[in-house]
Specification:
Number of helices: 12
Number of strands: 10
CATH architecture of the largest domain: 3-Layer(aba) Sandwich
Number of domains: 2
Enzyme class: oxidoreductase
Pfam family, one: 2-Hacid_dh
GO molecular function, one term: glyoxylate reductase (NADPH) activity
Distance between the termini: 29 Å
Bound molecules: (2R)-2,3-dihydroxypropanoic acid
Catalytic activity: (R)-glycerate + NAD(+) = 3-hydroxypyruvate + NADH + H(+); (R)-glycerate + NADP(+) = 3-hydroxypyruvate + NADPH + H(+); glycolate + NADP(+) = glyoxylate + NADPH + H(+)
Keywords: Oxidoreductase
Order of helices and strands: HHEHEHEHHEHEHEHEHEHEEH
Length: about 300
């Protein structure tokens, strides 16, 4: 992938690239961005007020992500900096990842694979390694936007699951098409066999999936997080699994990221962890990059962004 270099050069844009595969420290970020007019942010660097204030020419921040919890939108608005993200193009890939995790946890797939690696093939014949049927069970969606809706469609079509959701407003299309029902959080926790998070991370909902909340879930429930690691308290999740307050968990996002190799979640039964690959297919990442570059070029030319957050 040339990360859009050709398009940027053709548009007459001088590009400076941070080549290292890690988030920058705040100081590195300021040093790298101080003179730029536009910023294409791939990854989860914290784009805060201090950074924006230190970059007097900055007109546009283009995110190569749909999530924007790492950006201070209020500061950007005050400083007249446009911010764009990449909604829509990653809906299916992310819903596919959630669907993959639901099935992998329900069938204990990652753990049983580890057993084979430990020369323990017969483990799958033992009753404690049996999975859970998803057919006819209840899927609870926390935050029913386009990704949650795409997951609900998959779960309805393949497993005829009942769909309930907790959201600020009603999703009429999901109600009409899938018979989805909007419920309070307490009901979502009490009724769902699988709970999957598809909301934006905010200061209000950070850490919402904690010990108290896990204890309100069914003991047979599966917890899925493909949104942001900040939604769950990782120690509380480990305890909830160890104490069997819930049955299993599938994570594409961890808290913190990256997850360290000695994290107990990685060797627990009924747990599947992926390294934040929700949108990582060649097709989706290409579409995200195209959209992010469209937004960047529009912002640099003083035009409205295709997908503008502010
Ligand atoms: C997103 O687009 O927000 C994904 O989580 C990638 O970071």
């Amino acid at each position: 992938m040339d990360f859009g270099m050709e398009r940027l050069h053709k548009a007459g844009i001088d590009v400076t690239v941070w080549e290292e595969d890690r988030n920058l420290t705040p100081e590195e970020l300021v040093a790298h961005c101080q003179k730029v007019d536009g910023l294409l942010n791939v990854g989860m660097n914290q784009l805060n007020r201090e950074l924006m204030a230190a970059c007097p020419n900055l007109k546009v921040i283009s995110l190569h992500s749909v999530g924007y919890d790492h950006v201070d939108l209020e500061a950007a608005k005050e400083l007249g900096i446009k911010v764009g993200n990449t909604p829509g193009v990653l809906t299916n890939a992310t819903a596919d990842t959630a669907f993959l995790l639901i099935q992998s946890v329900a069938r204990n797939a990652f753990y049983l694979n580890h057993q084979i690696l430990e020369d323990n093939w017969k483990a799958s014949q033992e009753i404690e390694n049996f999975g859970i049927e998803l057919r006819g069970k209840t899927l609870g969606i926390f935050g029913l936007g386009s990704i949650g809706f795409a997951l609900a469609k998959r779960c309805k079509a393949v497993f005829d699951m009942e769909i309930i959701y907790h959201n600020r407003g009603n999703n009429e299309e999901a109600e009409k098409l899938l018979g989805a029902r909007r419920v309070e959080l307490e009901e979502l926790l009490a009724e769902s066999d699988v709970i999957s998070i598809h909301a934006n991370l905010t200061t209000e909902n950070t850490g919402i999936f904690n010990d108290e909340v896990f204890q309100q879930m069914k003991q047979s429930a599966i917890f899925i997080n493909t949104a942001r690691g900040g939604f769950h308290n990782e120690l509380d999740l480990i305890l909830a699994l160890q104490k069997k307050h819930i049955w299993g968990a599938g994570l594409d996002v961890t808290n913190p990221e990256p997850m360290h190799a000695d994290n107990p979640l990685l060797t627990m039964p009924h747990v599947c962890v992926l390294p934040h690959i929700g949108s990582a297919t060649l097709e989706t990442r290409t579409a995200m990059l195209d959209l992010a570059i469209d937004n960047l070029i529009a912002g640099l030319n003083g035009k409205p962004l295709k997908t503008e957050l502010i």
